[in-house]
Automatic annotation (TrEMBL):
InterPro entries associated with the record: Staygreen (IPR024438)
Domain Staygreen protein: 43-194
Any single Pfam family the record assigns to this protein: Staygreen
Domain of life: Eukaryota
This protein's record includes keyword Plastid: yes
Major localization class: plastid
Protein name, per record: Senescence-inducible chloroplast stay-green protein 1
Keywords, sorted A to Z: Chloroplast, Plastid, Transit peptide
Record GO biological process: chlorophyll catabolic process
Cellular localization per UniProt: Plastid, Chloroplast
UniProt family annotation: Belongs to the staygreen family.
PANTHER family referenced in this protein's UniProt entry, alphabetically: LP06106P, PROTEIN STAY-GREEN 1, CHLOROPLASTIC-RELATED
Amino acid sequence: MAFAAAMLPLPVQRGSPLFVFSKRSRGSLSMVPAARLFGPAIFEASKLKVLFLGVDKAKHPGKLPRAYTLTHSDLTSKLTLAISHTINRAQLQGWCNRLQRDEVVAEWNKVQGKMSLHVHCHISGGHFLLDLVASLRYYIFCDELPVVLKAFVHGDEALFNDYPELEEAMVWVYFHSNLPEFNRVECWGPLRDAASAGRSKAGEAQPPFPTDRPRRCKAECDCCFPLQSLIPWPHDFQEERRESAGRPQQ
């Protein structure tokens, strides 16, 4: 099967298309999905387009829902960031977006009085091409996420100017996959560090990060906002695994 070549280590060129044609020893060509994702791992403000969709530029996200939707254009090599009260579904339409699934969506949460940024990436599932390159996609998402976080901070500049303490909020990254080894939640530490150094380097410079994600109060309260997630993807991966295994929830 030609797609089996996707499991072999291949040089990944940033900005390359989703499919790369590689030459076999017998001269035939095999089509290998290469998950291009976000291009250069260097943030360029000139390539970022920001859309404010019905949201106050400087309203604290602990009082009004705030979500980010970030996508990439293969034609222009530019990023589009929508800032709204929920994810911008219109931005995720089109066959190319549904095939590549290279979007990143995020939301601000106040949980027990503390602000945190929750970032979601789709690694695999939906079609078999993504399953074949799940390991590569996980690696690239981890490599590119500092650029994504910088885009959030730059694009929402007015918010961070008014509330600089938000750059100290913890970043929680949800990797969604049908493969257990990539279906996981990671704490990347404070936003300021995660945006500048990524996951591992930020972790080296700081005390160990929490391993349990913040959870909203079960009863109605004033210390958690919003009451429900703005992103309709699984958040409790342990519950998700129990459901997929057909076992009742505890």
